[in-house]
Specification:
The complex is a heterodimer of chains A (164) and B (274).
Chain A: E1 2-8, E2 12-13, E3 16-17, H1 21-24, E4 34-35, H2 41-44, E5 45-48, E6 51-53, E7 58-59, E8 74-75, E9 79-91, E10 96-105, E11 120-122, E12 144-153, H3 156-159
Parallel strand pairs in A: 3-11
Antiparallel strand pairs in A: 1-9, 2-8, 4-7, 5-6, 9-10, 10-12
Chain B: E1 2-3, E2 13-14, E3 31-34, E4 42-47, E5 50-52, H1 57-62, H2 81-87, E6 93-97, E7 106-118, E8 122-141, E9 148-149, E10 154-155, E11 169-191, E12 196-209, E13 238-239, E14 246-254, H3 266-272
Parallel strand pairs in B: 6-11
Antiparallel strand pairs in B: 1-2, 3-4, 4-7, 5-7, 7-8, 8-11, 9-10, 11-12, 12-13, 12-14
The chains are: A mainly beta (164), B mainly beta (274).
Amino acid sequence: MIGILRMQSGQPEWLVAALPAALRSLDVNNRSPNLVPGVKYSQIILGTPHRYFDPQAYSAPGPRQLGNVGRNTIIGPGLATWDSGLFKDTSVTERVHLQFRAEFFNLLNRANFGVSQANSLFDANGGRIGSAGVITNTVSTSRQVQFGLSWYSNRADEANITEP
Amino acid sequence: MANLRHITDPTTTLGPLWQNDSSNDLGPRLGFAWSPSRVEDFFARRSRPALPHQRPQHVDCASAPISPDFNIPDNGNFPNALTTIAASNSAGAVSVIQYEHNKTPHALQYNLSLQQQFGSATVVSITYAGSRGINLLSEGEMNGPRAEWDGQSLAYPLTARVINPNFSNITYFANNANSWYNGLLTSFQRRFSAGFQTQVSYTFSRAISEADGGQTGQQISAGGAELKYPLDMSVNNGLSGYDFRHLLTVNYSWNLPLGVAVMESPARCFRVGK
């Protein structure tokens, strides 16, 4: 039996706001929202795919503002996967073997959500975008189980190897 | 190759073809391994190689839209390019690369690893690994004016105008970005009785950069990143899209005491599966 468990923090994400025409004419390419004063990070992260972060924690930047939220200030959902496998060897002859394999990927069937693609909070007129903070993708497969049967034979050089 | 020599030039200047100066692409490495004479099964390793990256391919690709003539919108004469250019009354957008004093992006990578074996079945290691990226590629709109702090955010005054009115957009590719990575890696490996063995690895790290992708590390592209405010790189400093603060990995292998025990390693199992 073998297995690999992997757990890691989420990926950072950059929140942005659409550019009004006045800034586009100044060759500005992107900007971010403003953070509402007094809001703490723990209050921003809601943690659900329906609304991973709270858009109300941010306000629309002024028509000529770049916004005061920095790059990659939101940490996306973490990832956890557990892959495992069971192998059973059966000797047919001294050199010929059969191996039955049962392999499980994402054994716990955990939904590993990606970062929110809806990272734009405000439109060019400063209006809120309703889908902000919604996660619509996962970054790992659902549980997958596969069975296999393989046949193999020892090579001549391996047959001479003995355990110490 | 046509390129803007200065941000306020009215038009591009035709110069020599871009030459890849590979004379600076040196990668010296320095390292040592040390096993104290009175402490058995203890090893220390350290290295500090300087590994300049080769000049990125996309710099050459960027030379295609350098001339503004290729960025003018269709004015009804497509596909006749010459007529389209002649009928254009706007210089449009231009892509510019850092023409002079262009520096080769490079990275300094350094690590220190301590490894201790306990008995014949347990190995513990602790490693510090760091990486420092210097003169990395960035992409920004350089025709924007200087913004001022208004008490809440950087903002453009009402009187602000583009720096060079001859162009609507000046997309500037420069080797002026930095990155920092520091990580602590720990590992515990043990072979138990009855054929059970496991390895537990944990990494605590932080990656900071001034440019890596449009919005996240997933959007890293050959063209680098669009900076939020290219006139002050400190505004763009933040977590890298590659920053994963915690990483825990556990792997195990166990020969179950079912039927005839067959001594198999995970590597053997995967090899057989090919």
